Amino acid sequence: MPRKLFEQHLHDLQDHVLIMGSMVETSIYRSMDSLKNRNLELAQKVIDDDDKIDSKRYEIEEECIDLIVTQQPMAGDMRIIIAVLNIIVDLERIADHAAGNSKIAIMLGNEPPLKPLVDLPRMAEMTGSMLRRALEAFINHDASVSAKICSEDDNIDHLYDQVFHELLVYMTEDPKSITRATRLIWVAHNLERSADRVTNIAERIIYLVTGTHEGLDGSKY
User: Fold this and answer.
1) Average pLDDT estimate for 143-172
2) What's the average model confidence in pLDDT over 93-100?
3) Which pLDDT score is estimated for 157?
4) Using N-to-C axis directions, what is the helix angle for 3-36 and 40-71, rounded to 10°?
5) Alpha carbon distance 183, 185 (integer Å)
6) Where do runs of H (alpha helix) occur along the chain?
7) Which of 1, 41, 124, 199 could bridge to 32 as Cys pair (CB 3.0-4.6 Å)?
């Protein structure tokens, strides 16, 4: 395959990652909207769309394998392909977490809300923003932006701790709230894990650009 054609295949591969990433980002926001607005139809759509995201992951994976087998790419190109293989796994897992939160929205159904949802939507918004910027950094091969995204994970962890402890107080004060509070803790946990997955993506981009598993500040990851 001529070099120009191979580069076009690599470009197309990265475009497919962006498409998958956009699907995942949409799932994050829709799952939270379904929870906030008790929109069970939207929650079911997120669950159904998870299969489409899985299919996209396998489609991209097959393209990567085909390029490796038929083109035997050199080191720099190989790093791009390996990055793609790692990124799509994390994207699929984030989509799984979004689908999980939509299932919780269905479990809660029309039960009266335990409390106004404030921190959980913030976690979803921050995670979606991190993901969107990480994918832009992937396309631009921007290690600096990726490092900043990694540092933002601490903010998500802080919000998770805040939500967790607040919901424990609800359970302690009113045992009847235990089931609803526990399910909201699951939602927070899924969002916290999603942010961790975005951090994995950002770290992979740093490796793609620098060729080393070491942060820009010299720390290992």
Assistant:
1) 96
2) 98
3) 97
4) 160
5) 5
6) 3-36, 40-71, 75-108, 119-140, 143-173, 178-210
7) 124
Cα 181 to its chain centre, rounded Å, is 24
Rounded to 10 degrees, the C-alpha dihedral 90/163/168/192 comes to 10
pTM for this predicted structure: 0.92
CA atoms within 13 A on the CB side of 155: 16
% of the chain exceeding 70 in pLDDT: 95
The two tokens of residue 199 are 């951090």
Residue 185: how many CB atoms within 10 A of its CB? Answer: 18
Could you count the other beta carbons within 10 Å of the beta carbon of residue 161? Answer: 12
DSSP 8-state assignment for residue 37: T
Query: How many percent of the chain have pLDDT more than 90?
Result: 80
